[in-house]
TrEMBL record:
Its cofactor is Mg(2+). PROSITE patterns: NUDIX, NUDIX_BOX. Belongs to the Nudix hydrolase family. SUPFAM superfamilies: Nudix (SSF55811), Thiamin phosphate synthase (SSF51391). It holds the Pfam family NUDIX. Residues 4-132 form the Nudix hydrolase domain. It comes from the Bacteria. InterPro entries: Aldolase_TIM (IPR013785), MutT-like (IPR047127), Nudix_hydrolase (IPR020476), NUDIX_hydrolase-like_dom_sf (IPR015797), NUDIX_hydrolase_CS (IPR020084), NUDIX_hydrolase_dom (IPR000086), ThiamineP_synth_sf (IPR036206), ThiamineP_synth_TenI (IPR022998). Keywords: DNA damage, DNA repair, DNA replication, Hydrolase, Magnesium, Metal-binding, Mutator protein. It catalyses: 8-oxo-GTP + H2O = 8-oxo-GMP + diphosphate + H(+); 8-oxo-dGTP + H2O = 8-oxo-dGMP + diphosphate + H(+). This is 8-oxo-dGTP diphosphatase.
Length: 312
């Protein structure tokens, strides 16, 4: 017999500096003393958005003014199976304070200091350390020297996640480009994922690999590296990326692109449904620019992935 699933609306309150709010579970509840994201059970007939607003008003005394769907994860605890419907809350009225005796702490996702975390939240914290903009390398079209110059500008301006693609370059040239990209990126605290083999990523000192749809489909287990991204175009590919343990996905094309004029697109409605159901963060790709970040987030995207737009 399949256990009943408890629907939960979970909130990631995000400060402008990237810190997120964690709450310690009070005595008398399962996992007392563990840290988690605020939220609670969805009542019968209640929408997820209504449950989120109610829980945050009851627990924290705040009124939500801008919340965006993010990801959905199912987790089996000994006492219950829960579906955690995560929202990122970017704006609210009032100052969060404990209405139910909890202890709160603002934490940086890449350096959480409170312990222990609820088991379900380890992948959530890792996902929250992903930046909102991902840049896809464009050295084939720009030329290597021009790309590296533009990379320096982008890193100076805050780009912190790079997918090194440029698959048509000769192997030796691609390795050299990867090593130089990693060197410059790491000097700014940015991460680089190499599109292709794990051997190439390791030789370049990269932070992980990015899998195109065919490469992801050929795998049944996660590549052995710190970060794994995957390119996806539909629900099946997105589910498989999550099943093999990818940390995030690029979902495309959202809108018409210069690269593939006339090709079918997802559109925001389909993108939003796929992103909300995904257990891993999804970047929107295709026809988007930096100015579309808030729009993409309002449709469930973690952020935007840019090819040309990252280097202009």
């Amino acid at each position: 017999m399949t256990a009943a699933i408890t629907e939960v609306a979970a909130a990631v309150l995000v400060q402008p500096d990237g810190r997120v709010l964690l709450a310690q579970r009070p005595a008398g509840k399962p996992y007392a003393g563990y840290w988690e994201f605020p939220g609670g059970k969805v009542e019968p007939g209640e929408s997820l958005e209504a449950a989120l607003a109610r829980e945050l008003h009851e627990e924290l005394g705040i009124a939500v003014t801008r919340a965006c769907r993010w990801i959905t994860r199912v987790f089996e605890y000994p006492h219950a199976t829960v579906r955690l419907n995560f929202f990122r809350v970017f704006e609210w009225q009032g100052t969060p304070h404990p209405h139910e005796g909890q202890v709160f702490s603002w934490q940086r996702p890449d350096a959480v200091e409170v312990t222990p975390l609820l088991p379900a939240n380890f992948p959530i914290v890792k996902a929250l350390s992903l930046p909102p903009v991902l840049g896809i390398s464009h050295a084939e079209a720009l030329g290597v020297d021009s790309f590296l110059a533009r990379l320096d500008v982008a890193l100076h301006d805050g780009l912190r996640l790079i997918q090194l693609r440029d698959k048509s370059l000769a192997e030796a040239a691609r390795l050299e480009l990867a090593r130089e990209t990693v060197r410059r990126a790491h000097a700014h605290g940015a991460r680089v994922l190499v599109n292709g083999s794990l051997d190439l990523a390791r030789a370049a000192g990269a932070d992980g690999v990015h899998l195109d749809a065919a490469a992801a489909a050929s795998l049944s287990v996660r590549p052995d590296c710190e970060w794994v991204g995957a390119s996806c175009h539909d629900a099946v590919e997105l589910a498989h990326a999550a099943a093999i343990g990818a940390d995030f996905a690029l979902l495309s094309p959202v809108l018409p692109t210069l690269t593939h004029p006339g090709a079918p697109t997802l559109g925001w409605e389909t993108f939003s449904a796929l992103a909300a159901a995904s257990p891993i963060p999804v970047y929107g790709l295709g026809g988007l620019g930096r100015d579309d970040l808030a729009l993409a987030q309002s449709h469930g995207a973690h952020g935007v992935a840019l090819l040309r737009g990252a280097w202009t």
